From TrEMBL:
It comes from Parathielavia appendiculata. The keyword Ribosomal protein does not apply. Keywords: Iron, Iron-sulfur, Metal-binding. Residues 115-126 have a biased composition (Low complexity). Residues 114-148 are annotated as: Disordered. One of its GO terms (biological process) is intracellular iron ion homeostasis. InterPro entries: Glutaredoxin (IPR002109), GRX_PICOT-like (IPR033658), Monothiol_GRX-rel (IPR004480), Thioredoxin-like_sf (IPR036249), Thioredoxin_domain (IPR013766). Residues 1-114 form the Thioredoxin domain. GO terms for cellular component: cytosol; nucleus. The keyword Lyase does not apply. It comes from the Eukaryota. This is Glutaredoxin. Belongs to the glutaredoxin family. Monothiol subfamily. GO terms for molecular function: 2 iron, 2 sulfur cluster binding; disulfide oxidoreductase activity; metal ion binding.
Amino acid sequence: MSSIKEITSVEDWEQHVSSLLPSTLLIVSFHAPWAAPCAQMAIVLSTLASEYPVTEPPSTSWVKINAEDLSDISEAYNVTAVPFLVLIRNGQVLETVSGSSAVKVRDAIERHASKAGAATTTSANGLGAGAGGNSEGEVTTEEDPEKKKQELFRRLGDLVKAAPVMLFMKGTPSEPKCGFSRQMVGILRDNAVKYGFFNILADDEVRQGLKEFADWPTFPQLWVDGELVGGLDIVKEELENNADFLKPYSVKANGDVSAGAS
């Protein structure tokens, strides 16, 4: 599976770009460590990258850049806000996506990545690998629902393990969009828990799929070590029964008193 490379200098960037083939899709994520939406986007992109196998020659290349540290590169691509995604092939910008919409990011990457695959791989009847075809050579556009579900569940399996403590909520920790999510954030903050989060309002596929994947119909959902704890009531009950329930995930317990929740 593909992974995301951190670009730390202009020289590193130039060397990486020059090493790519003209057919490779370069996926560049501009971020800032202080911006909460970037933490969510990092999870989205890491999950997406894992869906693309490493090929020879490489069909995709995934990198991330601190927009403030490497301002010259940011200015070259007109990055004025983060998160900001740039899709490049053969030195040409194909598309940019500003903001934290996981749906827009996924759609953009899949659209351009599939074009790359269709250009380099053909099947016996001449159809691109990204296109469907039947025995008569006719193109079909219908996706196998079961295969699509399996792919979604694989993605969700990665998401729930993206951090030791993962919160799937409505909104973000700085701007919760429901009272239950706000209370859950408060509980994690009060217990000094460092956690990852995912705004389910930004990706309806995750929002609906996670209900079935978890067999839990409501949000927020708290996951610990890849296992579902439950919603707000369950988390409160766990803490009532064991005040140290979240202690192993506390930044204080791990000696990192300067760290805060994601």
